[in-house]
Every structure is written in structure tokens, then in C-alpha cells.
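Incident review: delayed structure delivery

Summary: a single-chain prediction request sat in the queue longer than the usual turnaround. Root cause was a stuck worker, restarted by the on-call engineer. No data loss occurred. The affected request and its eventual output are reproduced below so the record is complete for anyone auditing the incident later.

Affected input:
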Amino acid sequence: MLNLERLRTLDALARHGSVSAAAEGLHVTTSAVSQQLSKLEREVGQQLLAKNGRGVRLTDAGRLLAGHAARILSQVEVAQADIEAQRGQVVGEVRVAAFPTAARGLFPGMLSALRTGHPDLRVRTRETEPEDGIRGVVRGDYDLAVVLDWSNKRLPVPGGLAQAHLLDDAPDVAMPAGHPLAGRAEVDLEDFADDDWVSWPEGEFCHEWLTFTLRSRGIEPRIPHLAGEHHTQLALIAAGCGVCVTPRLGRGPVPEGVVLVPVRQRVMRHVYAVWRTDADRRPSVRATVGALADAAAAVGAAPGAGRAGAL
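Output delivered after worker restart:
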């Protein structure tokens, strides 16, 4: 008999490409991963891993068994979904990922509702970027992910995933209080062609959106400052380091000396949940999507323009 947990470990190694990444995906130690794989090799009587520089690679036998493991684990998931659906009870565990501002803006309400309404459901949450969230759902690392795209730059969603719209998030431009445009009721992004920008780190979806949007309007942006957290971006704006686009979802207190002005073109972030279609029957997934939708409805639209303390 092949051990299911050891097959899960082999599958994680095949999907993630290294022992350390597999351990992170499984939320165990690298030693635990190595021990499980050694036991699996003894069970099947063949070498599944070979040295590859400082890491390891799958042998032919390892790739063959990893393919079977992926299919076995997929079928086990379908069986678990069927059993859960047949019971009709919201129980077990659900793993949810979200990009940072959605985690900050939606997870507290979601977790509170699930804890009250479904006390037997265990919820595990993680912060991750939208593209990583989608990949994690496809791989089976997460049951759901909260992701985003922009009205002028869509995020590709592969087949086999269902999705539910949660909210549209209208961003503002944050600028120092002394900026010439700080008194405007609305602004266009091209109004800031001569300004320095504070942006998300390179490679992140929102950074790519900002550069794509500005270049599409004939602006080659100057971006001397990169920061992943919105409160860090706003602190840089308060220090007079430039301007930034700041969404309203999950927005915390605005620093003194920062003004927020809505964008006239109604550029929107579309926020939605994605999950595998074969998990549609799981009451836990349906309950979690419902709790996310309720949390999104409760968040509403944050105030648009204003000086520090307006939020």
C-alpha cells in the first residue's frame, strides 16, 4: 500500500521543484519532507530522487510516480468533496489566500462570520500576490484565493476555476498636501507626467498595471521608490517623495500631510474569489465564498478625497 501523505509530499516536490519549497507549501520542515521521501523510496523499492547540484531532481521512476500521485490526490479531493457535500455540513479545513489589501480588508469579517456560523470549520489564511494565488489554487495549495485585476489590464484565469465577483475598488492618487493638484476634486493620471512615482515592487501585477497604464497615455514614469505595503507608500508620500495610486480596500489611517484625490477616468480594481470547479459541491467552500461576499458588502466604498484623518 502506498502511503497517501508520502504521495502528497512527492507531489509537492514535483510541483514546487525543491525540498525547501515543498516544505513551505506543505507547512512542514525540510527534514520532514526528506524523511517522507526516503520512506517512500523504501516502499516502492526504487530511487525517486537524484542529486542535482545543491538540490535534487526526480528520477524517471520519480516522475512516473509523481504523475500517478497527482491523479490519486485529485481523485481523493473529489471523494472528500462528495462526502462533505453528502453530509451537507460545513466542517473540515479550508485554505484561503488573498493579496495583502484584501487580506487586511476582508479576512477579519470573513473569519468572524465563519467562526460564529460554522465553529467546526478550520480556516487557514495566507497573503500572496494574485498570480501566485491562482497558481496555488490550480496546484491545490489553496482551496480559494482572493485575486484582482484592473479594468484596463485583466488577470488571466485558467480553465477549471470558478470565480465570484466580490467588489470593485476605486483607487485615488495620494500626493503631498502642498502638491499643486491637492485641491482638485478629480485628477487624471497623466496630470502627474512630471512627478516621481512610488510604486509596488517590480514584477508584481499592480506595478505592471501602473507602468502599462502610464505608458499607454504617452508617459514614461519615473519610479525611484518601490514598496510593497501601502502604509509604507503613503509614508513616502508624506515625506514628499512623489505620488502614488492607492486603492481604498484595506486602507489604513492616512498620514498627516497626505491628500487623496479620486481618479477621473474611473479606473477600477476588480476583486474576486477563485476556486476549483471540482470543489463547488463542498459546503465549506460555498460558506467561505459567502462569508467573503458578506465581508466585501460590509466594507463598502471608502471615502475618496481628503486630508489626513478623513478616513
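Verification: Confidence is low (pLDDT under 50) at residues 301-311.
Action items: add queue-age alerting; document worker restart procedure.
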